[in-house]
Design goal:
about 75% helix, about 90 residues, flat, mainly alpha
Length: about 90
């Protein structure tokens, strides 16, 4: 019985360690792209502004496809843009 309990604890600990590791590489956000391009200063500001504008347009289109309006559209668009821009 003790062996079974120990085996279960080891399996549970191992499984949770694997679950915490990300399975995908960095997602392509505006922040990640600017870092990959090694942008700084005015070039980074300009790139981020354009990227955010493009993200807002794409998110508005996605909200329209989902037939969202009002607060639901605003909430969806805000989260979508934040996810696209990155932190």
């Amino acid at each position: 019985m003790k062996r079974l309990v120990i085996a279960l604890l080891v399996c549970a600990a191992t499984g949770s360690a694997y679950a915490q590791q990300p399975t995908t590489p960095r997602s392509p956000t505006c922040t990640n792209e600017s870092a990959d391009k090694k942008l700084a200063g005015a070039a980074k500001t300009s790139f981020m502004k354009k990227c955010e504008t493009d993200a807002a347009a794409a998110c508005d289109a996605a909200a329209a496809d989902k037939k969202l309006s009002g607060a639901a559209k605003t909430s969806f668009t805000k989260k979508c843009v934040a996810d696209s821009v990155g932190g």
